[in-house]
């Protein structure tokens, strides 16, 4: 399943580091999520959804 994290992050003008800071993870985690190399936990998915 394709995720839209990068698309929505760019639409809202948020950098990878800013998103990472808001959801309490490293920017490397955001990069991995955007490349679909990592599946987020339910908690992380929720945190991203409310940013």
TrEMBL record:
Q: Which InterPro entries match?
A: Cro/C1-type_HTH, Lambda_DNA-bd_dom_sf
Q: Name one GO molecular function term.
A: DNA binding
What PROSITE patterns is this protein classified in? HTH_CROC1 (PS50943)
The record places domain HTH cro/C1-type at 5-49
Sorted keywords for this record are: DNA-binding
Q: Which CDD domains match?
A: HTH_XRE
The answer to keyword Plastid applying to this record is no
Quick check: keyword Nucleotidyltransferase in the entry?
no
Q: What is this protein called?
A: Helix-turn-helix transcriptional regulator
